[in-house]
């Protein structure tokens, strides 16, 4: 049967997967990615590292198959990261990541300039730091020489697609979350692009996720070991690709994605824009996927381990946290280490540790950080319910879902069972399946769920309900008081 390659250009790692249709994972491979924060609130990466990782990963994976077996390639990644090229195709600067919070002043300036409600209705997303217009306005003000030389603006997986095929395009969800798409026509609107201060020519054409974008060039084949001529599809936003792999396609299903950031996603057949959340297209045509995305998650935990862990791993810290009672004995944390995106959209928000005494140890801090992300998930669920989206079944995926203590905390905070997914390799699987669809290897979107099984449900402990109800109230109040 046909073999498909999926690549995930993630915030903390680059991941590749080879699948053999209809239901076999041949192999996966990964390489770490360095996230740079040279100033408070900044988040940058080097796209050349992504491409170097892709080349290493592909050579490792292609050793597992005969070259002629590979029939399609799909690439997913974080969005809307900002990658800038000059006229020669050279990178102008490191990427500005989706979690970057440097453009607060530009966000406020845009809000004064245009009608927020009209923009939300038109573009599907509110005015916040996720949009490209504020980020590019920041560049115009602070790095004018870079801004002047911009010839191409696109995203993380768009960049890798270009390196593979030589074709410059922006995938539909990158264009939507960037604030450049007219929701009524589903087309990039020149006047929305103009808000970013760039010419329409700087933005490549829009592509559908499963649209065949181009084929692997001779140059890319030489760098990666891929066969020349293999088709590459438009790609997919990482959180949407992960949701597809989890089988989230009906009302009431919620995916909790524990990757470099923590994401909360649902499926719906109609768009209902809300300024507190993001709106994306589902990979299944005709559906939408309202979602929330925190600025950090796994990246915040990694920072904690690197800064305070003293050689301890995530797993050893989990063991310590498991010995601490619910509520962390009064320790509370705001996890806004890069500002915060949904649902508060505050690039100036900052992390905070409170309630510390000499009786507390690193296990308290680690548990309090896990609880903080669980409280933030509950905040998202409340917003989804307020705007009419039912939340009935919770699925958990990606690396953080392997943490027993974290998943029990999340179940206790939500007071609802959480279904962990077993064998879900993450967004790379959704990317591979999208490529299989686009290249005509299958027409069954939900066939991707054959690769993923369900582990035992994580049941909530009713005895912790009151503690976490009070802890959530303190969490919300702490942000209001410190903000």
What CATH architecture of the domain at 3-238 would you give? 2-Layer Sandwich
Number of helices: 16
State the total count of DSSP E strands: 24
| Strand composition percent | 15-25%
Backbone shape: globular
Rg (C-alpha, Å): 21 Å
Commentary on this structure:
The mean pLDDT is 95. It contains 16 helices and 24 strands. The chain has a domain at 3-238: Nucleotidyltransferase, domain 5 (2-Layer Sandwich). The chain has a seven-stranded mixed β-sheet, sandwiched between helices. Strands 3-2-1-5-15 form a five-stranded mixed β-sheet, sandwiched between helices. The radius of gyration is 21 Å and the shape is globular. The protein has helices at residues 47-62, 104-113, 116-123, 132-142, 144-148, 156-165, 172-177, 190-194, 218-224, 238-246, 298-308, 314-322, 362-386, 404-414, 427-438, 465-482, and strands at residues 3-9, 13-20, 24-32, 44-45, 70-77, 83-85, 95-96, 152-154, 170-171, 181-182, 187-188, 206-207, 212-215, 231-233, 236-237, 252-258, 262-266, 278-281, 288-293, 332-334, 352-354, 391-397, 418-422, 453-458. The N and C termini lie far apart (56 Å). Helix 1 crosses helix 6 (156-165), helix 10 packs across helix 15 and helix 13 (362-386) crosses helix 14 (404-414). A hairpin with a 6-residue loop joins strand 18 and strand 19 (288-293). It is an alpha+beta fold and 483 residues long.
């Amino acid at each position: 049967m046909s073999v498909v390659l999926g690549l995930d250009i993630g915030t903390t790692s680059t991941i590749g997967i080879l699948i053999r249709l209809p239901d076999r994972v041949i192999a996966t491979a990964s390489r770490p990615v360095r996230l740079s924060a040279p100033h408070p609130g900044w988040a940058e990466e080097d796209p050349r590292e992504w491409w170097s990782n892709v080349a290493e990963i592909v050579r490792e994976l292609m050793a597992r198959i005969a070259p002629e077996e590979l029939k399609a390639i799909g690439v997913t990644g974080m969005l809307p990261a900002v990658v800038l090229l000059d006229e020669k195709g050279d990178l102008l600067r490191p990427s500005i990541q989706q979690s970057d919070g440097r453009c607060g002043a530009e966000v406020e300036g845009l809000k004064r300039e245009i009608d927020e409600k009209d923009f939300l209705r038109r573009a599907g997303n509110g005015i916040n730091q996720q949009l490209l217009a504020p980020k590019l306005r920041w560049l115009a003000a602070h790095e004018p020489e870079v801004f002047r030389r911009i010839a191409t603006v696109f995203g993380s997986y768009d960049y890798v697609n270009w390196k593979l095929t030589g074709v410059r395009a922006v995938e539909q969800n990158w264009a939507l979350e960037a604030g450049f798409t007219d929701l009524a026509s589903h087309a990039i609107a020149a006047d929305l692009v103009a808000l970013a201060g760039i010419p329409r020519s700087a933005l490549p054409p829009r592509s559908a996720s499963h649209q065949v974008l181009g084929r692997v060039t001779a140059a890319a084949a030489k760098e990666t070991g891929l066969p020349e001529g293999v088709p590459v599809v438009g790609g997919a936003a990482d959180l949407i690709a992960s949701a597809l792999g989890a089988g989230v396609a009906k009302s009431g299903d919620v995916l909790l994605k524990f990757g470099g950031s923590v994401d909360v996603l649902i499926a719906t057949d109609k768009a209902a824009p809300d300024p507190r959340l993001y709106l994306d297209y589902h990979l299944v045509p005709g559906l939408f996927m309202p979602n929330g995305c925190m600025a950090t998650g796994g990246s915040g935990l990694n920072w904690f381990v690197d800064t305070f862990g003293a050689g301890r791993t995530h797993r050893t810290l989990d063991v310590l946290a498991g010995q601490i009672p619910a509520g962390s004995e009064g320790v509370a944390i705001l996890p806004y280490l890069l500002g915060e995106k949904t649902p508060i959209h505050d690039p100036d928000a900052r992390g905070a540790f409170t309630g510390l005494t000499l009786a507390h140890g690193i296990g308290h801090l680690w548990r309090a950080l896990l609880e903080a992300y669980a409280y933030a998930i509950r905040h998202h669920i409340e917003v989804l319910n307020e705007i009419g989206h039912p939340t009935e079944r919770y699925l958990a995926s990606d690396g953080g879902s392997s943490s027993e203590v974290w998943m029990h905390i999340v179940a206790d905070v939500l007071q609802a069972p959480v279904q962990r997914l077993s064998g879900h390799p993450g967004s790379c699987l959704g990317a591979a399946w999208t490529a299989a669809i686009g290249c005509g290897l299958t027409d069954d979107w939900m066939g991707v769920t054959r690769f993923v099984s369900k582990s035992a449900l994580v049941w909530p402990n009713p005895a912790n309900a009151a503690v976490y109800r009070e802890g959530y109230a303190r969490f919300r109040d702490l942000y209001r008081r410190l903000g």
